[in-house]
Amino acid sequence: MRAVVFIALLLAAVCAAQSNPADAEDSHLRSLLEEAGSGPFEFIRAIEKHLEKFPDSPRRAEMERSLVKAAIETKDDDRILRYGERVIAQGDDDPQTLERVIRVLLSRDNKDRATRALRYSREYEDAVRMIEKEKPTRRGDQVLWRGEVDRGFGRAFVFQARALSTLGRHEEAASAAAAGYERDPSAETAREAALTLMRTGKEMEAVERFADAFVIWDPRNTDAAHAEDRKRMGELYRKLRGSEAGLGDLILQAYDRTAALLEKRREAIRRLDSNAGLEDPMQFTLSSLNGEDLALSSLRGKVVVFDFWATWCGPCRVQHPQYEAVKKKFGERGDLVFLSVNTDEDPNMVAGFLERNGWDKSIYFEDGLSRLLRVSSIPTTIIANRRGEIVSRIVGFDPGRFTEILSERIREALGE
Fold first, then answer.
1. Which CATH code is given to the segment(s) 132-276?
2. Region for residue 120 given its phi and psi (left: phi exceeds 0; alpha: psi -120 to 50; beta: otherwise)
3. How far apart are CA 185 and CA 154, in angstroms?
4. pLDDT tens per residue, range 236-255
5. For residue 158, how many other CB atoms are within 10 A of its CB?
6. Residue 406 CB coordination number (10 Å)
7. CATH number 3.90.25.10 is the correct assignment for the domain at 281-414
8. Phi/psi of residue 380, each to 5°?
């Protein structure tokens, strides 16, 4: 969350205050927020000052949730803990709040803090399990969902391992760390597994896990953490073997081991979504309302017009008859294809919409294509030429000139 979010919070609070300007609390809050400006530090001071004067405010819980978000933005650990634990106690299981509170608690080697962190990390695990049950219906969203879930479980088990280690429950910590690595094989989870293995006296296994952390390509890993993994691995290996002779072979084994593991995971993702990892839009396969998939590679050599729309999009409805008029103008020809691409969150909404509005049911679902093509608003019309290159993008539409503009762009792509 960035400063723009605080502006939104600010405006929301002001609007709430303005709903009853005669009320003393609302007037006080409105005055403080108007003075505060839009920065997160000023926002925190204004809300805290208001709560000092009105400790029993009916909006206190809402304000404290806002204070947590502001404290996260400003990296204020004391306030993250102060307000975060209050918000959690109110039954708020927001994963971001839980994660940041846990990280602050575990930043100090303290058994009381570790006990609280362990409790919250199990709540965090429960929150991830709830997300896991909410598998998205759109195929293009399922890879992101799977990644979010696996990373969430990885974090939950790493937090539990750290808390359990501080509490001296090292065998349980090692089991938790191993579970984290199994769900999310990353540098962080491998590192945590190594540390817990060291504490249980399994030092050679710890070296192997440090080697895994060292060789795994992980965009979340930092250069400093990577260097520290190398240092710990070397120190522990020299302690056990007297020198680093043979360490290179162990690192190569770790590379082969983790490469095979990550390829297995990539294969599972490809089964979940055949479009995962593709960078060429014309290699995508789109699912359709009638259940038949369309491989866009089969359209090579043709000009393709993509119409991105949604059932909830008012301008899409206005544009539709003009889009259909353009299709009719060009008629049936073998070198031009019009694709209606639906972007609804819930594909189950589409069939009824088409039926009610009398639209052609020959539509396809975006299945991640809109993300690759960076379609950020709809309606958007994109044209690919015969070589599969994107040559035109029309964002929104001009009701008075849309048919003219689209027709001209199509003729350019056809080379006419």
1. 1.25.40
2. alpha
3. 8
4. 999 999 999 999 999 999 99
5. 27
6. 25
7. no
8. -135, 135
